[in-house]
TrEMBL record:
This is Solute carrier family 2, facilitated glucose transporter member 9. Residues 1-188 form the Major facilitator superfamily (MFS) profile domain. It is found in: Membrane. PANTHER family: MAJOR FACILITATOR SUPERFAMILY (MFS) PROFILE DOMAIN-CONTAINING PROTEIN (PTHR23503:SF54), SOLUTE CARRIER FAMILY 2 (PTHR23503). GO terms for cellular component: plasma membrane. It comes from Tinamus guttatus (White-throated tinamou). Its main location: membrane. Keywords: Membrane, Signal, Sugar transport, Transmembrane, Transmembrane helix, Transport.
Amino acid sequence: LWHVLLSFSGLVALIQLLILPFFPESPPYLLLQKGDKKGCLKAMKQLWGEGNYHSEFDDMLKERAATKGTKIMNVLEVLKDPSVRQQLSILLLLLLSIQLCGLTNLQESIIPYVSLGVGISELFSITFCSSIIDRFGRRILLCGGYLLMALILVFLEISLLLSDQFFWMRYCSVILIFLFIIAYGIGP
């Protein structure tokens, strides 16, 4: 029944596509990108109900003033920007090395559970990062994430070297992959 499971995500996407036009634009988008103050206030009332949103509106105005001189870049411009080329290259290399190396030699019956574990790891890292980013800041999370990723890759290499001698090391490799995904989601 894999085709039913696959079509479920398409059905959810179709429902979102159909109801999306009935939702207002994001208030920060309306104010910061479009400069539409009335539309911003209207969207706030439509999304959050009646109330006084002057403090939130003032915060957005301050953010607008702080980012006035910065240019908003699309994905292609970010990829072409030389100041982020090294970081993007490192991330691409790390992701490709994990995707293409065929790390573990697991039984075919276990592979769906590994895929599920990868999804759960991504969900956990996103939730965890969004809850701690304000407390620690992006710089610490980036440095800590890269450090954890490097350490996990060292342990992963050791587990792969020992996987022929010890059968259970394959499962350690899977756990290390999950931890790598979590470290990647929390940091980079």
